Amino acid sequence: MTFYDRRDLGLLLLRLGAGGVLVAHGTQKLFGWFGGHGIEGTGQFMESVGYRPGKASATAAGLAETGGGALLALGLATPAAGAAAAGAMAGAAAVHAPNGFFNQEGGYEYAATLGLAAIGLAVTGPGRLSLDHALGHVLDRGWMVPAALGTAAAATAVVVGTRVKRLQQESGNGEDEGGSEADALFDETTPS
């Protein structure tokens, strides 16, 4: 008989909690579930905060959150799942960063916390109460952690950097950055 320790149970609870929240937010973007705005509304929001094209950005964020969250909850392909979720949360944190740290002011603390939880799970691994463990860790090898996190970090840097450059160019031309549209579409606590 296999006995599981506190670490395995703790990792399971962390995976289910963080993964479940990510899935819920991702399905808001993709399908409009749980009071979300679906691809169309989320795409408009993404455009308004500088992520263009909006629908493609909404789809990418929704897939990263839904897919990464589901895989984290299951403990399957944990390095890739954590990296995808962390990348999506870094993009969300970039939108909220001008508002400071605290969530009640529209800050980035919520997105940062989910992103750090996802990175922590990617680094630590899913524990024995996971599909990765049941499958012999074929999708959870040690080399996959830096590869997945490095790839996600590079892709996120390009996407967020492009957004920042675009917003700087637009503000230099006297155009509005679209923050008021974003506030109208989404509650400040919703990660992008």
UniProtKB/TrEMBL annotation:
Acidic residues: compositionally biased ranges: 173-186
What family is this protein classified in? Answer: Belongs to the DoxX family.
A GO cellular component annotation here is: plasma membrane
Spell out the residue ranges making up region: Disordered: 168-192
PANTHER family per the record?
A: INNER MEMBRANE PROTEIN YPHA-RELATED, OXIDOREDUCTASE CATD-RELATED
Instruction: List localization entries.
Output: Cell membrane
- How does the entry describe its membrane topology? Multi-pass membrane protein
Q: Which InterPro entries match?
A: DoxX, DoxX-like_oxidoreductase
Its name, as the record gives it, is: RpiR family transcriptional regulator
The lineage is: Bacteria, Bacillati, Actinomycetota, Actinomycetes, Kitasatosporales
Name of a matching Pfam family:
DoxX
Keywords on record: Cell membrane, Membrane, Transmembrane, Transmembrane helix
Q: Which residues cross the membrane?
A: 70-95, 107-123, 143-161
Organism domain of life: Bacteria
